[in-house]
Amino acid sequence: MDRRGFIESCSAGAAGLTLAASWPDAWANAKPRAYAPALLVTDRGDPLRAADLKEQANYVFHYPYLATPVFLLDLGKAAQPRALSTAGHEPYNWPGGVGNKRSVVAFSAICAHQLVFPTREVSFISFRKTRAQRGVQDALIHCCAEHSQYDPARGAEVLAGPARQPLCAVLLSYDPRVDSLTAYATLGGELFDEFFKKYAAKLSLDVGSKAHDPVNGKTVVYPLEKFCRNPIQC
């Protein structure tokens, strides 16, 4: 098996399905889509404080469904609003970061090219504080499967690789009184339907019959190194 086949096999598990060559325009949703609010909490069940996030470190939670992972990042500096568009050329305005420094951002951890995503066993996609061997700059979300690279400071805009749209943003509300974060919506090109189709068998094994159930009330945030046994560095 060649390297690409190994990567896709590890990411897809038992699913074994492939994507169409291009994204149908109908898969992209350029308007905010509201879901049940979910408070971000620690693995002890306590509300996560934004101040406890390490700068430029990978965190993972699940939203808006129990099986759809999200990257949570404190970039260490303000992330400004940005005008973006989906693969279907639908424009949208990403609102930028939240928190005291407006440095906290969240994006779907499902790559917009081949839907590679972090699992408990392995992750070929992650935020890289320093550029990867084939990286174009520091501080990017890098997918090692096909080297799509996204800038989280610019709404996860694609800077390199075959991905045709930014990572779907997960919108967060911030309560400065208690320094808490709540996920409440997505913005940009959602690819959840295709994700569930591609990984149906694997998600059934990993999550069970509740994989497609919506997150409701709260969602646990994990450092990537605790969530995943083998984060791949390429």
Number of strands: 14
Distance between the termini: 18 Å
Runs in which pLDDT lies below 50 for 5 or more consecutive residues are 1-29
Q: What characterizes the major β-sheet?
A: 4 strands, mixed
Give the SSE string.
HEEEEEEEEEEEEHHEEH
- How are strands sequenced across the largest beta sheet? 11-12-1-13
Strand content: 25-35%
Number of helices: 4
Rg over CA atoms: 16 Å
Task: Find the structural class using helix and strand composition.
Answer: mainly beta
Basic shape: globular
Helix content: 10-25%
What is the mean pLDDT?
Answer: 89
Features:
single chain, 234 residues, mainly beta, 4-stranded mixed beta sheet, 4-stranded antiparallel beta sheet, 4 helices, 14 strands, 12% helix, disordered N terminus
Describe the structure.
- With 234 residues, this protein is mainly β.
- The protein has helices at 3-12, 192-198, 200-206, 224-227, and strands at residues 29-41, 59-62, 69-74, 82-85, 91-94, 104-108, 125-128, 140-143, 149-151, 157-160, 169-175, 180-188, 217-220, 222-223.
- The strands form 4 sheets. Strands 11-12-1-13 form a 4-stranded mixed β-sheet, with no helix packed on it. It has a 4-stranded antiparallel β-sheet with strand order 6-3-2-14.
- The protein is globular and about 40 Å long.
- The relative contact order is 0.26.
- The model is unreliable at 1-29 (pLDDT under 50).
